[in-house]
Amino acid sequence: MSSLSRELVFLILQFLDEEKFKETVHKLEQESGFFFNMKHFEDQVQAGEWDEVERYLCGFTKVEDNRYSMKIFFEIRKQKYLEALDRQDRAKAVEILVKDLKVFASFNEELFKEITQLLTLDNFRQNEQLSKYGDTKSARNIMLVELKKLIEANPLFREKLSFPAFKSSRLRTLINQSLNWQHQICKNPRPNPDIKTLFTDHSCSPNTNGARPPPTNGPLVGSIPKAGTFPPLGAHGPFQPVVSPSSGAIAGWMSSGNPSLPHAAAVAAGPPGLVQPANAAAFLKHPRTPSGMPGMDYQSADSEHLMKRIRTGQSDEVFFSGIAHAPNVYSQDDLPKTVVRALNQGSNVMSMDFHPQQQTILLVGTNVGEISLWEVGSRERLVHKPFKVWDISAASMPLQSALLNDAVVSVNRCVWAPDGLMLGVAFSKHIVQIYQYNPTGELRQHLEIDAHVGGVNDIAFALPNKQLSIVTCGDDKMIKVWDTVARRRLYIFEGHEAPVYSVCPHYKENIQFIFSTAIDGKIKAWLYDCLGSRVDYDAPGLWCTTMAYSADGTRLFSCGTSKDGESHLVEWNESEGAVKRTYSGFRKRSLGVVQFDTTRNRFLAAGDEFQIKFWDMDATTMLIAVDADGGLPASPRLRFNKEGSLLAVTTSDNGIKILANSNGSRLIRMMESRAVDKNRAPSEPVNSKPLIVNALGSVGNAAIAPALERPDRVPPAVSVSSLGAMDSSRLVDVKPRISDDTDRMKGWRISDIIDPSHLKVLRLTDAVTAGRVVRLLYTNSGLALLALASNAVHKLWKWQRTERSPLGKATAYIAPQLWQPPSGTPMTNDICDSKPTEESAACIALSKNDSYVMSASGGKVSLFNMMTFKVMTTFMSPPPAATFLAFHPQDNNIIAIGMEDSTIQIYNVRVDEVNLEC
Hints:
Number of strands: 40
Structural class: alpha+beta
Shape: globular
């Protein structure tokens, strides 16, 4: 259903409520699923109308949708069950137990047995956990508090808990405007028309004397305010068609001819269905993850296939004894707020960008045209290149004239290519320079382009047709696309009426496109063809605006400042081309153009009011502001590294400060602790992935080859914080670079720990089972330790949340607890009768969400549920036996199994069969 159709439902809901059709209102809320009326829900719960409560809930979620929904239904049915017991209505209690609560037995059989045993008690309050149960009213109120928290945390209810804000009697107003318009174009309009029906278009009968009285704008329907003046008739015409590329897929933003019209006009002027044509494809409308950007336009991934045995990326754990909230993956502690480095650039920094893989390499461009590469960990400037035209003889006459009149050239933007093997620099006069980044740390001149007449305001890398290209824009009001390999211009886009300020290339569903903004506040979008702009929108502030996607490419943001100094940071609804969320917290009159950046698919940061301001992407209010120990300009420039552990920010004294979170601080300390050789290559630090080049070609060739198919989605880099957990098998195809200088290699080694105070030893004992540990691994969350013993028994130790360790992370200073299932039966592998367990190969693997463990001890491979410790399935009887296991990183249903006969089996849990053998 389109956005306009959804808005029409809200208008009808408002109309029904104003007309006192209360039951119909709630029925429409339930059937549409657009608005969850919490007040109605509370009233029904407090009244004990359990059938109506569940019926209303079912319009928004089902029991099996996700763990929040399951908990909500469980609490309601448990309360209904307890009330029946409290009334001594055991027959009703048994009916509820069998019909309503039985469904939860498959998830927690022990709990279901405990609930069943309540039937044997004269008073269920004899159960210790229910001893504080009061009267029915207080119990309902307590449960209601818990239900509200669960509903607010449930991703299926996001943006459905608040009714949109619009004026009263809005539907009447729209109908009145439509009738006024019909009366204006009437051939024989009368001064006081008599409107008798809405079923047909209005038309006045001819006057007897044939005179044409002036049109009226008076209200024609109901007692509502007089409608305002109407735009010309042409503004109410149908949406203009859009020329589509051969693929037939056009962005949702690109589906209307005049999208800047307000929704009210679109509703009043659209076709009878009040929606856009069905063939207007909206490829930018896409599903989003609950933790990323919730919205009722999008179907949450939690709502599908939850009851399958394996669920990708999501835990199925359900806690019935208390409120179960999904832990927030990120907190304010994850924001880089602590100053760990101060670098002296020497001139005013205009642009910065961290290397996409080497997390501590920072590219810097300044107002005098110089570029530098900094290793922020060691405070070493690796490269410094002042501005110069590489081949002045090949420069155009306008460029030569501009340089003669004013030799000062500034860097407007510098940026890394997605693979980190190239970087591009856009200058304030005409030219763009592209460098190859050599694994030895050297920058080599690759391509110089006289790109635009005037300044080149922005540059970005893109991969149209899987070919590495650069996109530039400039003062000449043009956007151009250049082939970095063939060194020629591929496309030129014209249509802006003012200098183009920024470009934002992106990729969705096999469609490459570019957003551009100009200094007149216009936003346009272009496909890689010659058919012109598909979008013409106004950016908030109507001046300098930049646009950027979140790291996962699913959410679009823009930040800009008006000529009056008013700054606007917003999130866009791509499918509608409208502002979805506006973030507050800016100074009323910003001094300069505010710059922003995104990180971790969760946080936004902007430089304003001599501070760095942070926002959660899902909340409009500012999280926190930091001044980085002072010394920042009014609108500092800033840039996150790809992991979000470091943040570079410009200072007023021509320098750069590096802020870090705890992971970033560890990374910096690691770099600082090394004896760094002055001539070392910056590609060798352990905080980076190896730069992978074609073994059959030169580094130069590899640098210009399109190594990534998704330029907008940079793969996560390996950091020091994750290096220790890396399996060496992941690097078998990458040959490490070996230097002849052995002293240099020694300089990169981690310092030896010689002081015993640097170590803390903790012994984990287990008096229940004996057997040496043959496999050991941390859970991905870092909250637990899982061991497989030689007797095929698994042991799980969990660190609890305490005042000393509020996050419950693994630490040697606090002893973890050995976790035991309620049944007391540990997870035990199948064993082979023909071979002693101690001599059998053992292997173990954890799913990415820590919900499932795959394990083998010489016998069949077993799949366990980590929440219940129950075996879900066993398969692949030996021989041969499994020797290594690995979950697919994106799909927990796909498992690679290495066998003792050197074969590899790819097993699909969904269909319970081996899909591939190699």
